[in-house]
Amino acid sequence: MSSTAPRHTALDALHRSLGATMTDFAGWDMPLRYGSERDEHHAVRTRAGLFDLSHMGEITVTGPQAASFLNHALVGNIASVGVGRARYTMVCRADGGILDDLIVYRLAETEAGSAHYMVVANASNAQVVLDALTERAAGFDVEVRDDRDAYALIAVQGPESPGVLKSLTDADLDGLKYYAGLPGTVAGVPALIARTGYTGEDGFELFVRPEHAVELWQALTKAGEGVGLVPCGLSCRDTLRLEAGMPLYGHELSTSLTPFDAGLGRVVKFEKEGDFVGREALQEAATRSEQNPPRVLVGLVAEGRRVPRAGYPVVADGRVIGEITSGAPSPTLGRPIAMAYVDKAHATPGTSGVGVDIRGSHEPYEVVALPFYKRQK
Q: Over pLDDT 90: what percentage of the chain?
C-alpha cells in the first residue's frame, strides 16, 4: 500500500454508510459534510452536532520531570495546570515562530510524583510537534510517546450536548468546568471526558479507544435523536470556529508569526520558572507588538454577498493594507465574514473605506471586533 494513501479513522465505514462526502485532510480521509453544511452549522448553534476528530494528534508525556519539561518545550506555564484541567498553549521555534497551537491536559499524578499529560496537536502538525517534543526532551527524565493510534476522538457540541451526554454517563458533568477533563464511562465505554471544543458552543470531546468508537457514536446518535443532534463534517466545523474567532493553523497561525503577531501573546508566560524555547525572540516580539505592531488580526463583515478567501488582499485608499486569512459565508450572520491581518491604522472596529480585492473588484467590508459570535451563557 502506498504511503501517500489517506489514513482512515475507526468511524470511516460508518461515515460512508451515512452518505458523507469525504475529503483528504492532513493525510486523513475525513467527512466534509453529510448533507447541508449550513444545516449542520445551525444544528450545533441551536441543538447539537456530532463530530469525528480522530485525526487530531495525541502525544503522551509522562515522568518525574514532565511538568518542567513541558514548561521548557512550550510557551505556557504547564506546571501550574491542576490535575483534571487543560490549557490552550503553543509550541514555538527558537525564533518565536509558531509550530502549532495545542491543548495540554494534565491527566494524573502518581504517588511517586510522576506526572501524566496528554498534548493534543493539530492533525497537519502532529508529526512536527512530536519531533519537536522528542528533540526537546533531551536531558529531562520524561517519556514522550506517540499515541495517535491509541485514541479515537468524538466531539458532541452545542447547547443540547450536556443533556445528551448526561443520559449516557454518571460522571459529574455539572462539576466539569470549561477546559477540564475527567476519566469516566460513556455508554459503557471508558473515556476521557473533556469540556473543550472548537465551535464557540458548550460541548465535550471524548477520547476513547478506537475499537469503542462506533458503539459510542451510535449511542450518542440515539441519545440525541429527541433533541435534533446531527452528524457534522469538517466544513461546518470551519464556519463555526470562524464565527467564534478561533485561529486555524496554516491560516491565522504559522511559523512566520509569533503568538504576539497573532494577538495571542497572552499564552506566553515569561514569569514561569526556567528557560523555554523561543523566550528571547518572544520577549523581543512582545516589546515590538506593544510599541508598533506591524499588523493586527481583525474581523471583516461583508456589505455584499461575495465571499473572500484566504490570501485575498485587503485594500483601503487604493493600496493593499492586509490579507485575508480565513473567509466563508456565515450561516449565523447571514453574510460573508473573514479574519484578516491588517495595518494597525485600519484595525479599529468601525473603520470605514476598507475593502477586499475579490478578483479585481473591491468589495466593501466593515471592520469588527472578534469574535463574530459569542454564545449566551
A: 94
Cα–Cα distance for residue pair 201/375, rounded to 1 Å:
6
298 and 340 Cβ atoms separated by less than 8 Å: yes
Give the residue from 228, 204, 84 showing the smallest Cα distance to 153. Answer: 204
Q: What is the DSSP string of 282-308?
A: HHHHHHHHHH--SEEEEEEEESSSPPP
Residue identified by cell 504511503 is 3
Task: Copy the grid coordinates of residue 211.
Answer: 475499537
pTM exceeding 0.90: yes
Query: Strand 28-33 vs strand 7-8: parallel, antiparallel, or unpaired?
Result: parallel
190 and 168 Cβ atoms separated by less than 8 Å = no
b/e per residue 132-165 (b: at least 16 CB within 10 A): bbeebbeebebebbebbeebbbbbbbbbbbbebb
Across 315-326, average pLDDT: 97
Alpha-carbon gap, residue 208 to 185, rounded angstroms: 10
**Cα(189)–Cα(202) distance, rounded to whole angstroms?**
22
CA-CA distance, 97 to 95, in Å (whole number)? 6
User: Of 53, 59, 48, 103, whose CA–CA distance to 81 is shortest?
Assistant: 103
DSSP summary character for residue 367: E
Q: How high is the pLDDT of residue 3? A: 59
Locate the DSSP E strands across 53-97. Answer: 57-63, 86-92
pLDDT at 22: 98
Q: Within a 13 Å sphere around the CA of 318, how many CA atoms are in the beta-carbon half? A: 0
Say what the alpha-carbon torsion angle 199, 39, 207, 60 is, to the nearest 10 degrees: -50
Bridge pairing between strands 319-330 and 189-194: unpaired
Residue 377 DSSP one-character state: -
Q: Which residue has the higher pLDDT, 1 or 333?
A: 333
Q: Where are the beta strands (DSSP E) in 237-360?
A: 295-302, 313-316, 319-330, 335-343, 354-358
Helices 234-243 and 37-46, axial angle in degrees (round to 10): 50
Nine cell digits for residue 326: 480565513
Q: H or E segment at 159?
A: none
Pick from 242-246, 283-287, 290-294, 342-346: least confident: 290-294
